[in-house]
Design goal:
single chain, Cyclic Phosphodiesterase, Chain: A, 7 helices
Length: about 240
Amino acid sequence: MHKYLNFMAALVTGLGLLAGPGAAQENPVTAIDIALEPDATMIKHAEAANARLREVFPNGYALDATHRPHITMLQRFVQTAALDKVYAAVGDVLAVEKPAGLTLKAFKYDFVVWDKTGVAVILIEPTDQLIRFQQKLIDAIAPFTVEKGTAAAFFTTTDDREISQPTIDYVARYVPASSGKKLVPHVTVGVASPDYLKKMVAEPFDTFTFSSAALSVYQLGNFGTARKKLQAWQLK
């Protein structure tokens, strides 16, 4: 399969931005996702792809206010008591780096299979500037990062209490497994059967460019989903 499928575990970061009660204030460690939120151009393409997928897989989720398209830049365990310092450190990076000025190119659909269900994404070409921005974020929050966390670091609800061990392990090894030259930027657009997605990926893809509109910090949920927005910055 396509070489970009090496990022299998990362794809599930796009499965949802769901609202609900969080446990971050009760936990000494919080699992976070620092994510770029794309402009209207990418959102339009992502919503069109999502609508197509839901026609053939009605049980899939819709991209809406609780499932926002986003591009994961970094996942880490951080000290919950230091979250304000994490936000300040990210803000300092934004004062120097200008991700709003990035022109990003979407070039392909791809997918991976997770528990017999295909997870579809729009792949984005990595750039040196994007990789540098990620490294700045890694360095900025390093003083507040911890190597390991438990299920208590993640966002759960009364209906969704489980945090899988692969989810915990993935966050722990996001750096270096998905950083630097191993960064595979993408926007997750929905789910469908693997057989359908094989045909979709094989179709011609009209490349397009877009920019980022905001940067957000989320608390992660199961399978790396960005579940609870903790902080956000509009990019100008």
